Amino acid sequence: MRTDGGGAGHVEGGQRRGERGILRSSFFITMMLCIIMPRRLSRSRTARQDIGRSHTSRSHTNRADRLRSDDALSEVIGFILIIAILMIFLSLWMVYVVPAEGRQQEIEHMNYVRNWFTQYKVTADSLWINHDDDKSLTGITFSNSLVLGSQGGATQAGGLFLPVMSPVGSTGAIVVTNKSEFITINGGSDTFPLAILEFETTNNYWIPQSYYYQMGGVFLRQPAGTVARVAPLINFNLEGNDAAIVNISSRAKSGMSGQGPVRIDTELNHVTTGISGTMPVTFELRDEFAAIGWEKILKERRALAGLNTDNVIITQSGSTVLVYRPDGNNTLTYNIVELVVSVQSVASGIE
After folding, report:
1. Closest by alpha carbon to 272, among 123, 131, 125, 126?
2. pLDDT tens digits, residue range 1-11?
3. Closest CA to 212 of 235, 193, 229, 192
4. 272: CB partners within 8 A, 6+ apart
5. Using CA atoms, how far apart are residues 346 and 155, in angstroms rounded to an integer?
6. Which residues of the chain fall below pLDDT 70?
7. How far is Cα 165 from Cα 44, in angstroms, rounded to an integer?
8. Are the beta carbons of 257 and 292 closer than 8 angstroms?
C-alpha cells in the first residue's frame, strides 16, 4: 500500500475535468479573437485606402467620421484582447498554481499531524511507564495544542477572488471515539474496549487521511488502507508475551472540528500493572483495512523479536486478527492504562 499519494487519482479526477473545461474556454476565446481581429484590422486598412483614393464621391466630413469610427473600433478590440489575456492568465493560475500550492499546504499539514501524534504517544507512554507503586502520577494531566486546518484558521479572501488567488484551506476534526473495537484475552474470558483518539481531515487537494492513537500505537488511515506509523504496545519473546491495554475515555467535550487550534488535555486516571493472563489474543477491529494494518505490524513485532511461525501465528480474517503461540509459551503479562481526554477550543489572536 502506498502512503505517498498513490491513491490520489480518484480525488484529482474531478479537478482535472474542471481544468480541461477552463482551458478549452480560454482557447476558444483566444481563437475567436485571432479570427476576428485580422478581419477588423483589414477592413480598417481597406477603408483608409478607399478614403485616400476617393476625392470626388466623399466629403472631408464623412472621411473624418469614418476614421474616428475605425479608431474607436481598434480601441474596443484592444480592450477585448487585454481581457482575454487576463482571463487566460487567471485560468492558468487556477489550473496549475492554486492546486499545487494547496496540495503542498495539505501535505505539510498532514506531516505536522503525524509528528503531533508521535509526540503524543511518547508523552503518554512516559507518563504511565514512570508511574510508581505509590501512584504519585495519578491525576497528572498533560496538554497538547493541535491545529486542525491546513491554514490554521487564517482569514481567507472572499467574494469573486475566493478560489482564484489562493487555495481553500482544509478542515479537520479530532475526537475520542470507539468504533466497536475490542481486544479479548484469556481464552475469551476478558474483553477490553479499544477506544481511539482520532484526527480526521477534509482535504481539498490531497488524499483524505486520518491519524489515530490506539493501544499505544499510531495508525494512518486512508482510502488505500491502514498502516501503523508507530507500533502498538505488544511484544513477543521466547519466554512469553507483554502488552499494554490503553483505555481512553472522554470528559467534558470529546471532540471538535474546524480549522483553528484546539487543546487536548490528557489525564492519567489509573494504571494497573503486572496482570497475568494467557494467550490467545483476539482483536476485533472496525473493518478489514484496520485488521490488515494490525496484522502487518504484529508480524513486524514478531520478526523484530527473532521469532517465526513456529513460535507465534498471526492470522487475519475480515475484521478479526487472531494471535496464538503454537510453541506453548502462552503467558501474557499486561498492564491496563486508563486515560481521560478532553478537547478544548483555543482562542487565537489574543495578545
Report:
1. 131
2. 444 444 444 44
3. 229
4. 335, 336
5. 16
6. 1-75, 132-136, 152-164, 347-351
7. 39
8. no
Same domain, residue pair 117 and 248: yes
Beta bridge partners of 183: 192, 283
Contact 260, 152 (CB under 8 A): yes
Residue 127 CB coordination number (10 Å): 19
Closest Cα to residue 301, out of 246, 247, 243? 243
Residues 189/200, Cβ–Cβ less than 8 Å = no
pLDDT (tens digit per residue) in 33-51 = 555 555 444 454 454 455 4
Torsion of CA 311, 230, 277, 322, to 10 degrees: -60
The cell for 329 is 509459551
In sequence order, which ranges of the chain are alpha helices (DSSP H)? Answer: 9-53, 60-92, 98-129, 288-304
Query: What's phi and psi for 333, nearest 5 deg?
Result: -105, 120
Residue 212 and residue 172 share a domain:
yes
Q: Counting every residue, how long is the chain?
A: 351
Domain boundary among 97, 126, 153: 97
The dihedral built from the CA positions of residue 79, 85, 88 and 89, taken in this order, carries a sign that is negative
Sign of CA dihedral 86, 91, 94, 97: negative
238 within 8 A of 297, measured Cβ to Cβ: no
Q: Which domain holds residue 28?
A: 9-97
Write the single-letter amino acid at 262: V
Residues facing residue 212 across a β-bridge? 198, 219
CA gap 298, 232 in Å, rounded? 9
pTM: 0.76
Rounded distance between C-alpha atoms, residue 196 and residue 208, angstroms: 19
Distance CA 286, CA 294 (A): 11
- How far apart CA 81 and CA 182 sit, in angstroms, is 66
Domain count, the chain: 2
At a CB cut-off of 8 Å and minimum separation 6, what does 271 contact? 128, 131, 135, 138, 335, 336, 337, 338
For residues 107 and 147, what is the distance between their CA atoms, to the nearest angstrom? 14
- SS3 category, 40: helix
Give domain status of residue 125, yes or no: yes
